[in-house]
Batch of 4 targets.
Target 1
Amino acid sequence: MLQFFDTLQAVWHLLVDRDPTLAAIVVRSLGVSASATVLATLLGFPIGAVLGVAQFRGRGLLMALLNSALAVPSVVIGLLIYVLLSRNGPLGMLGWLFSLKAMVLAQTILVAPLVMALTCQLVRDADRAHGAQFEVLGARTLMRSGLWLWDQRHALVLIALTAFGRAISEVGAVMVVGGNIEGFTRVMTTAIALETSKGDLPMAMALGCVLLAVVVCLNLLLALGRHLQHRNDWAHRKPWSVAGNGNLG
């Protein structure tokens, strides 16, 4: 029991004293996941919006593949990228293996399908409900996609936060392609796994607390964003409802 409280005290000192090793791992992890999220949204928002609006032959198969990509284990994605970036792989000349670039690439490929799928569903629901006005104006697929992306921009922020939460909690792919090199490619999730196996519980628990705090903050931001979005939707619907009741009266 005393050992448990000693561990908690050590964790507290690591967090309060801003241990340099811990701080470097946290900053590196946030940087990798933020970069991957930006790349995934730049790729996923336009593709997802087009898929949400467009109707073409083979769309069903494409959506099935996209939904299947959501269930691919992260370690398999890491293995695929490892093979591509290995010395004998087609992208071996880049020299990215066991680097932050490889980790960003892995997380981008991991979360991009999530961004595409959520954006596609968001735009598709909006287009089904209110897309008739765009059809009357003769807006084509790309224009409609762009208009819906702008119209749903607040909801897209929530999708980006969801993607960041998925990226920062990932461990399998980044460990495979990054190598978990101390001071270079070690991030929070891989460091927690390593420190736990080494028996350094204070460092593992301190990193776990930081990661948990990040996830909790993301969920609070998501909840706040949904609340604000619902209030905004209600504010836009309410005048129509009042006007309608007045007309009926």
Target 2
Amino acid sequence: MTVLSVRGLEKSYGGVQALRGVGFRVAAGEIVAMIGPNGAGKTTCFDILGGQTTADGGAVELDGRSLLGLTPRRIWRLGVGRTFQITATFGSMSVRENVQMALLSYRRRLWSLASLATRAYTDEADALLTRAGILEQARRPCAELAYGDLKRVELAIALAGRPRLLLMDEPTAGMAPQERGALMRLAASLAREDGAAVLFTEHDMEVVFTHADRVLVLAQGELIAQGVPAAVRADARVREVYLGTGDA
């Protein structure tokens, strides 16, 4: 079942065409990578999907409902979660409190933060931390965590909104090599358990070709290839503009 449908997406900044008629789909339980050289349009595409940027044309639908023109908060409430290249957590708060804050916001209870932040939705927060593999750090301030652990906290926060679509912007950036595979295996298992769709950008090609079900390739705002990893890796144009002829 298609969760995300993108058709004819267009975006220009002055005289620069950031996206040129981009279209693709992501199904429930599917892990799709979006790759391409710097300036290819990946961030612009993600920002349109999340509501941070307005498209000039095209269509974006989540479970058949249009997302274009909606605010980021509205899009989040409809089921689009996002993690960022640079993690964004409240450093002085504990790991558990960060997830509790997300749960309070999702349930429109931010007015009660002063009295509830440390005791609301404790069991649900711990369940999300367990799924993200970070429960043992629940009481620690986020400021004390290693970067790989912060990525797991951010994933738990994203899951607090019960996403139908999870956007992951360079999820393994800054992580040690041994942590990258573990995080992507976790994201894949969560997507398949929940029937969510996952779209991620990534510069580490080992992560992409090991963990993606399909790969989308952008170059100069155009979708130049899409398909299973082996087919994309062998595509002559992809190798020319991004992977290089020496990539195995």
Target 3
Amino acid sequence: MKKTMISALVLSAASLGLPAVAGFAPAYAAAPAVAGLPDFADLVERVGPAVVNIRTTERITQRDVDAAGQADEMQEFLRRFFGGQMPRGQAPRRRNLPTPGQEIQRGIGSGFVVSADGYVLTNAHVVDGADEVYVTLTDKREFKAKVLGADARADVAVLKIDSGGKLPYLTIGDPNKARVGEWVIAIGSPFNLENTVTSGIISAKARDTGDLLPLIQSDVAVNPGNSGGPLINLKGEVIGINSQIATLSGGYNGISFAIPIDEAMRVADQLKKSGKVTRGRLGVQIGELNKDVAESLGLKNNKGAEVTQVEPGSPADKGGLRVGDVVIKYNGKDIDRFADLTRMVLGTAPGSKATLTVWRKGAPTDVQVTVGEADPDNKVASRSGGKRGEQRGGTVPASGANALGFIVSDLTPAQKRELGVNGGVIVEDTEGPAEAAGLRQGDILLMLNNQDIVDAKQFNAAVAKLDPKRAAAVLVRRGNQAQHFSLRPAPASK
């Protein structure tokens, strides 16, 4: 196919048949300056020697040998009785069974040296379950590595090799200064093809994929075997550890993710010192705040994290954090997405004092909490599995549902003690807005538009005064969790 390249096209007023006007030059849009594509050769030559190949092995146990032998015998049984007889005089063919202690290949990955004395970073999933880990340099020297620690939550592992001399290493960059659209390269061992270089641009930053850390998204080709390798900027600085790909086929589909190197180094420092990572804990469950609820609560936007559960006796409980609070700042830093709070707390040293700015009853207030230590699984309070509708209140009002679609009754003193509340009402039935929102019998209503609900009479009176043109925020408790719901009052019938 013939390809034609046109470097420039200049048209004058005369060539277009347009009259020339004295004193005026023809107005044409200036062509944007086009920069040439970067040449990565010098960069790769400089940083490539610090990138390593990692292979892992596991040792065969007697149990593995026994299982393989049983499988072999079963296969022979099925062949003999369902696949025809062995020729006379020919012995059954047996595969060579492994022997206990024998090393077999487990997996491959990538990594990079971060100090001249042999510290190597990679992904935790690269070395997970391995009995031995081997690191191969670009000059083909291979070393058995010691795993100093691996953290599955952050997917970071630290290895140590003893090379007997100074090793080339990568400079740690600042991923916060990286810009969307800038060029980056990845070096690794995709499909065990050592020292493979791919390039692309940063597609997005702080991408929330549900992992512990916000990730750097790029379109750099990353495939199985690239895991643990560096994402490098044009200065030759490592800004991330290649960790994940978005794929339906198992191969590269145009989206890859890297762990920001500053977050990875914080984890690595702890792993080097103690072999484990300690994280902070509040003892709460949180949820996302939608726009309608935020507006009903008087917030300017829906940034922040809504507290849906407070574990009794937890640091949050002792500090005075309440169900229904919306945490908008943590130690002075804004909570843009509700997952930000989880990451900030987990990154806080246990025993530290933390200040949470919460939105409560229409105004911000500060809550001081002494951060606890998370268990290895970072568990919080368990959810209640109680059946709905088992808690019944006092006398059910004879009137129909109010403008929000609730029929409610007062809580008994015993129910208040059990729930640990001073007020609130229990839902007996729903219709209209409440039913459409998924609220149901047995739910406990605690607050209406930042105001505590005292009893059924007070609640119904407050609902009657609501503006039907504005949504109302109702704090609903179900089991051990509570959440705000945004409901628009039904207009009064004429």
Target 4
Amino acid sequence: MDGDFKEMFQTLARYNKLTNQDMVKVLETMDPTKLIEDLGSYYKSIMGVLNHHLQADIGWLRILGTHISYLNFISPLLERFPTERLSPGQLYWTSLDEYKTVRYEIDDIYEKAISSLPASEFPSIITVEGRRGKLDYVTWRIFLHLFNHQTHHRGSVSVLLDQLNIENDYSNLLWKV
């Protein structure tokens, strides 16, 4: 079973990387002012959604890099990124070019992390102290949450694009990987 986790997460990392690239290609066709326009969603704008899910990825990668010895190479790669939590509508990355550079780098880190993690480590438990106190997490569940979180927020972006009548479809794992 352990080997199945590794293969599955390698597939999800590749899928998310390619799908994020496809989403960015759609966004690059837009007027940049539309990306920061308040469209009434929880995170206000398309860039607000993108900032939120990228910040969450960076935060969890920091946790994984400090709690799993096989992934300690991650922490130095993330040092230049902000650690403060964003409020809805706040932006660290204000342009698509800024976002794209960081998104692609983080997607590469995901692929390297999963490749570096022995299959036997996916069922391991890490204890994280955070806003909710000390909690135990199973490593494979963290990765599943992170990829699911990305899918959820790409869906949010898709709905906003639909409302703007901008064609988008970057969702199919079977055609991509």
